[in-house]
Design a protein that fits this description.
The protein is an alpha+beta fold. It has helices at residues 34-40, 44-54, 80-120, and strands at residues 5-11, 19-27, 59-67. A hairpin with a 7-residue loop joins strand 1 and strand 2.
Length: 124
């Protein structure tokens, strides 16, 4: 599986005051320091061109529209494949613990039987 890098870049070409636009972009080869680019450029076309010089695979893949009084506080990421693997690892570990517990229970029962036999045949 190939990793890609995702960027949310403000697009100031919007002349509407009721919403804010962000371009969703990606690069495939380099994790670009987008904050450094944003200190040099504000026009979305200039930002894209600067990023393409760093990584030619850089491109816009979508957009996000926010209300005028909204801003992006944070971005959360979930890697479903990793989540599935962790869930499988947990399931395997729980199954192993359950099997170990059954094995211990069986050994405990055998031990009790042996101790019972020993005590019934014990002569002073």
């Amino acid at each position: 599986m190939k990793n890609v890098y995702i960027y949310l870049i403000p697009n100031n070409k919007n002349n509407r005051t009721t919403s804010k636009f962000h371009n969703v972009c990606k690069s495939e080869n380099v994790n670009i320091n987008i904050n450094e680019i944003l200190t040099k450029f504000t026009d979305i076309n200039d930002i894209v061109l600067a990023c393409k010089q760093i990584d030619p695979s850089f491109k816009t893949i979508g957009g996000i529209v926010l209300g005028s009084k909204e801003q992006i506080g944070s971005v959360n990421f979930s890697n479903m494949e990793q989540t599935k693997q962790v869930d499988a690892d947990i399931e395997n570990l729980l199954e192993s613990i359950e099997n170990t517990q059954k094995e211990l229970d069986n050994k405990y029962k055998v031990l009790i039987k042996l101790l019972t036999k020993k005590n019934t045949h014990y002569v002073k």
